[in-house]
Design a protein that fits this description.
The complex is a heterodimer of chains A (510) and B (319). Chain A has 510 residues and is mostly helical. Chain A has 16 helices and no strands. Chain A has a single domain, classed as Cytochrome C Oxidase, Chain A (Up-down Bundle). The longest helix of chain A is centred in the N-terminal third of the chain and has 35 residues. Chain A starts with 10 loop residues before the first helix and ends in a 29-residue tail after the last helix. With 319 residues, chain B is mainly β. Chain B has an 8-stranded mixed β-sheet with strand order 8-5-1-2-3-11-12-13, with no helix packed on it. Classes of the chains: A mainly alpha (510), B mainly beta (319). At the A-B interface, helix 3, helix 6, helix 11 and helix 13 of A face helix 1, strand 7 and strand 9 of B. The complex binds protoporphyrin IX containing FE and copper (II) ion. Copper (II) ion binds next to helix 9 of chain A.
Chain lengths: 510, 319
């Protein structure tokens, strides 16, 4: 049954709305703006590294600004807002409440994001996304670094407000008939993520203030010349940002839990295993932060503790992978774009996890740390796993949001280009790391192996860029002219089971 | 949950693999943790954007580190400004240089040869160029081990009290090419520029703080170039005079009156194709001097810059 599209609402009505689907849509659009802006910077970075010497950039200084803004944009303005957007769209529907618990707060949390985007892009800082002092407090040029600090500060606040809203919506506002242990795994992932945000972010928020006053010279928390300790910052930073990697990841896992059983036309293998794995990682994820700091001069005991902490977090990721595979096992799988991205994401998730285990094995980390290996590792997660889950879910949610279908052929091409591109770039980056190529360099030694591998990586990067251009075209074109979707069974699975979201719920005052 | 068994088996296998990885890592790392008591200590100093090395006997090297094969070395890694990371990829040596801390790492170099030393932690404008070279030389005689290897071509001889270095070539300090080597006696830094054609052998100058300076007559009376205090901050005057005119054959004395290390290197910037080919003082430490011999320079204008602070530029006109 094809539903008649209503007359589109005027733009201002969506912009000033506090309805959860409108806010969700704004989040999703803002995050995709960031995705394409940050991705554009990556294209320039890869072009520079196509050859040793200087091509695109005048030197390390400009290059550093590019990779700093690239990383900051994609982590904080793409991953976080996108997950919040989908959460906004679906959580109230899934827990059967009319809206988020606090709709106005929800709007405020969203509207804090565009100013941050402007601050970060207008400043164009060169601190790297880690902003390690003393570089960031003594050497990084202002006002760029200051704008970066203020921008992230506001973003952190926005995340915390959003997270509180999600938590309350799920725990307090869910329909009385819906027990917690029947809530969808997507909701569980959002709930766990929100709680992790509430625990993790304040630490970084505090260290941003300290960073700022250190920059002003009034304090010396991280300035060795004033009796401070630069390593203290790294502990605070990673106390937030190791859990943060799960904050990025779990929403994508939650989305895969929506996609995989649906397109396997089979019930999920084990709901309990999914819940347990989510909750366990939320706790254990807080005990491994210093695995980013094996080389700062930690004692043997510290290193051992954080290695064990990191290894302990791995089985729960493996449980998700197992759950996905067991669900697919024996299913009548339909490889539509959402499923392609989910399955591709799981494959890359598995290989990235194996690389993570290598990182955390103490002696091996001294080979991989701060080399291109780490770049490959994190991108395999961030692009290969998380963004793949997100792209899959964009396709999955597309009929719900627009009432239309995307062009399936272009979507499949998008997937192939991205998957092959990701394997090329991020796989080769692992090997580059083993050859000793440091990360964050504008230039490298003109050794034939390094040149060839960098060229493969750049080629893969351009494949991904092409894929993303096709994706953008598909999204815009199909939103306007795509054929109307079957709102009950948009992917033609023909299972007879009602699996898709209640289309009517997307309009306020339905 | 009737179908739980395969999942438990799977989790069991994963956990077993992780425990194995953890146990192996623990064992290897434990064996690497403590330096043998007879190690020689080398202090490694990271600084924007070069490495310097201080041997136990007081000798100091910049951007070159000479070690002996088979001898355990214990590195004390420190930083003078921001965080750097001391990395020798071929020997899997990696340790951050953190201001306010002394980090240690040790190694026995088992293969002779020349290896790359690089900085693995982002440290600013010339991070990518913060490289040095490691020379592992055959062990001929040393104080830590009683065995001496068989073949001995004279490479480094380290007197215990007086610190002199003879480079691998045996005769001339700094003959290895573009790098610099220098001889340091406590409190007195003597520097020999090297590499470029402009450096005649024997153009040695000393910093004038001790009595035995003026080893080379060339420094007296010639044109001079000064690097004023504050030069390392962009916007301040970088060279005084910024444009220097000399007659061909003059020997210019460069004095570093700033608190940061600097160079005078030909070319408008480090990315110039022939930067450093005509003349290059290499690193001049604070309060030290170096010389530039213009005998081999063509008449005309030669821009120069500081490789440590590329925004510092000047120009030399030879008549
Ligand atoms: C199997 C699970 C994982 C393990 C064992 C693991 C392990 C590690 C380790 C040990 C490092 C430090 C490497 C180094 O700097 O020397 C690292 C870096 C990193 N990991 Fe993971 N990781 C895992 C999962 C993830 C996930 C899910 C993400 C998702 C975003 C992620 C993102 C990152 C990032 C961003 C870095 C680099 C941070 C930086 O230095 O800029 N990791 N990982
Ligand atoms: Cu981590």
């Amino acid at each position: 049954m094809v539903l008649e599209l209503k007359k589109p609402r005027p733009l201002w009505e969506i912009i000033f709305s506090t309805h959860h689907t409108d806010i969700g849509l704004l989040y999703i659009i803002a995050s995709m703006v960031a995705l394409f802006a940050g991705g554009g910077l990556a294209m320039a970075i890869r072009a520079e590294l196509f050859l040793p010497g200087l091509q695109v950039f005048s030197g390390q200084a400009d290059f550093s600004r590019f990779f700093t803004v690239h990383g900051t944009t994609l982590l904080f303005l793409w991953l976080i807002p996108f997950a919040a957007g989908v959460g906004n769209y679906l959580v109230p529907i899934m827990v059967r409440y009319k809206d988020m618990a606090w709709p106005k707060l929800n709007a405020v949390a969203f509207w804090m994001i565009p100013p941050c985007m402007i601050l970060i892009w207008a400043g164009f800082s060169d601190t790297t996304w880690n902003a390690y002092p003393p570089y960031s407090i003594l050497k990084a040029p202002g006002p760029a670094a200051d704008m970066w600090i203020v921008g992230l500060k506001i973003l952190g606040l926005s995340s915390v407000l959003g997270a509180i809203n999600f938590t309350v919506t799920m725990l307090k506002m869910k329909h009385p008939d819906l027990p917690l242990m029947k809530m969808s795994l997507f909701c569980w992932a959002t709930l766990v993520t929100s709680m992790m945000i509430i625990v993790a972010i304040p630490t970084f928020a505090a260290s941003l203030v300290m960073l700022y006053t250190d920059r002003l010279g009034v304090t010396g928390f991280f300035n060795a010349e004033m009796g401070g300790d630069p390593i203290a910052y790294q502990h605070l930073f990673w106390f937030t940002f190791h859990p943060e990697v799960y904050i990025f990841t779990l929403p994508a896992i939650g989305m895969m839990y929506e996609i995989i059983p649906t397109f396997s036309r089979k019930p999920l293998f084990s709901y309990y295993s999914g819940v347990i794995a989510l909750v366990v990682i939320a706790v254990i994820g807080f005990g491994s932060w210093a695995h980013h700091m094996f080389a700062v001069g930690m004692s043997f005991t510290e290193k051992t503790v954080f290695m064990v902490g990191t290894l302990a977090a791995v089985p729960s990721s493996a449980m998700h992978v197992f759950n996905f595979l067991a669900t697919m096992w024996g299913g009548r799988i339909k490889f539509a774009a959402p499923m392609l991205f989910a399955v591709g994401g799981i494959l890359l998730f598995f290989s990235a996890g194996a690389g993570g285990v290598v990182n955390t094995a103490m002696p091996l980390d001294f080979l991989t740390h701060d080399s291109y290996w780490v770049v490959g590792h994190m991108h395999l997660f961030i692009m290969g796993t998380i963004s793949f889950g997100f792209f899959g879910f964009i396709y999955y949610l597309f009929p719900m949001i627009t009432g239309r279908m995307y062009n399936t052929k272009l979507a499949n091409i998008h997937f192939v280009l991205l998957f092959v591109g990701a394997v090329l770039v991020f796989g080769v980056q692992h090997i580059l790391g083993l050859y000793g190529m440091p990360r964050r360099v504008v230039d490298y030694l003109p050794i034939p192996e390094l040149i060839i591998m960098n060229q493969i990586a750049t080629f893969g990067g351009w494949m991904m860029g092409a894929g993303m251009a096709i994706f953008l075209y598909n999204m815009i074109k199909s939103t306007m002219f795509g054929k109307l979707a079957d709102t009950k069974d948009p992917f033609g699975l023909g299972t007879g089971v009602e699996y898709y979201y209640d289309y009517a719920r997307r309009e306020p005052h339905h | 949950m009737g179908h739980g068994t395969p999942e438990w088996v799977f989790i069991g296998v994963v956990t077993a693999i992780l425990i194995w990885v953890g146990a192996e890592s623990w064992q290897v790392e434990h064996s690497l943790e403590y330096a043998p008591p007879n190690s020689e200590t080398v202090r490694v100093i990271g600084q924007q954007w070069f490495w310097s090395f201080q041997h136990a006997d007081g000798t100091q090297e910049i951007n070159e580190l000479h070690v002996k094969q088979g001898v355990p070395y214990r590195f004390e890694i420190v930083s003078n400004d921001v965080i750097h990371s001391f990395n020798i990829p071929d020997f899997a040596i990696l340790m951050d240089a953190v201001p306010g801390r002394v980090n240690t790492m040790w190694n026995i170099f088992d293969e002779t040869g020349e290896y790359l030393i690089e900085c693995r932690e982002y440290c600013g404008m010339l991070h990518m160029d913060m490289r040095a070279r490691l020379f592992v030389e055959p062990n001929t005689e040393n104080s830590t081990s009683s065995t001496s290897s068989t073949e001995s071509e004279p490479t480094i001889s380290q007197g215990t009290g007086t610190a002199t270095i003879v480079s691998p070539g045996g005769s001339e300090v700094g003959s290895t090419g573009t790098g610099t080597m220098r001889v340091v006696e406590p409190g007195n830094l003597t520097q020999t520029p090297s590499g470029g054609t402009a450096n005649g052998s024997g153009d040695t100058s000393s910093n004038g703080t001790s009595g035995d300076n003026a080893t080379s007559g060339a420094t007296a009376g010639g044109p001079s170039l000064s690097i004023p205090a504050g030069a390392s901050t962009p916007g301040n005057p970088s060279y005084s005079p910024a444009t220097l005119t000399v007659s061909k054959g003059d020997v210019i004395t460069v004095s570093n009156d700033d608190t940061a290390p600097h160079t005078v290197t030909n070319g408008a910037s480090p990315s110039d194709a022939d930067a450093g080919k005509l003349f290059d003082t290499s690193i001049i430490m604070p309060a030290a001097t170096a010389t530039i011999d213009t005998a081999s320079l063509e008449a005309g204008e030669h821009p120069f810059h500081c490789t440590v602070h590329p925004f510092m530029t000047g120009s030399l006109t030879v008549q």
